[in-house]
Amino acid sequence: MILVAESGSTKTEWFLEGKSEAILTKGINPFFLSSSKITELLSDSDLNGLCEKVSEVYFFGPGCAYPEHRAIVREGIQQYFHEAKKIFVGHDLEAAAYALYDGEPCICGILGTGSNTCFFDGQDISQATPSLAWILGDEGSGNHMGKRLLRAWVYKQLPESLAEELETTYKLTVKDLMDAVYHSPAPANTYLASFMPFIHEHRSAPAIRAIIDESFHAFFKNHIINYENYQKTPLHLVGSIAHYFREELYENAANYGIQIRNILQKPGKNLAKAVLSDQIPVLKE
């Protein structure tokens, strides 16, 4: 029995061979979770009962670009799926590329809790600029916009009515904000991205629209335009931010002459199909 997982920092979709619906767990990111914490997360999830039935696991997630980080995730998964003969751990960029590829070389981007980009020619994945993750980078993501919203609120740069609604909706205080970002064991990037419903609801307000445009501008400027022939190469995007803010994305992309072809909210089902149908030969090596 084969299990394919596509993870973000917030949640993971697990697709079991022969099943069309995903099993959901919390997100898995080795920047925030140790191997033992990953095993604990799986043990307390709806995957319970599958630990002895799964023979192969193909996991793709954030923070898995480097061998030492992949090793953390692999060990955590192996400890739970102890009968599995193969555990493959790949990067979330690989998941996006495999899920979005339509036969033509393309630029692929992730815009969810975090962000990242790559170029995929059907065989190899390359990056023009690396992701600097949630503290230094993540341009265009929920983390990036949430950070800017909260900064504007603290610095009294939001209209009074918006500031009051933000405080009431989230029962927000500066102390709570500081504790959540700097002292909570929970990942700070998911906390910052949790303010995206507020941004989406008020996206037509000038102050909020400015945050959205600034974030997408940084995404295109710092990443997409660094790819060769970026104006002639289709851009495919995955993630909740790309899905729910597609109108703003298209408008900002047009300023750079960028062609957005596909936006996919959840790549997991496409990814599972590609893995289970042997469309990704490297995974079977």
Task: Give your account of this protein's structure.
The chain has 285 residues and is α/β, with parallel strands linked by helices. It has a domain at 2-95 and 268-284: ATPase, nucleotide binding domain (Nucleotidyltransferase, domain 5, 2-Layer Sandwich), CATH 3.30.420. The chain has helices at residues 35-43, 67-80, 92-100, 133-136, 142-154, 160-170, 174-182, 188-193, 196-201, 206-222, 240-244, 246-254, 268-276, and strands at residues 2-7, 11-16, 23-26, 56-61, 86-91, 106-111, 115-120, 125-126, 235-238, 260-264. It has a five-stranded mixed beta sheet, sandwiched between helices. Strands 8-7-6-9-10 form a five-stranded mixed beta sheet, with helices on both faces. Helix 1 runs parallel beside helix 2 (67-80). The protein is globular and about 55 Å long. 41% of the residues are buried. The mean pLDDT is 90.
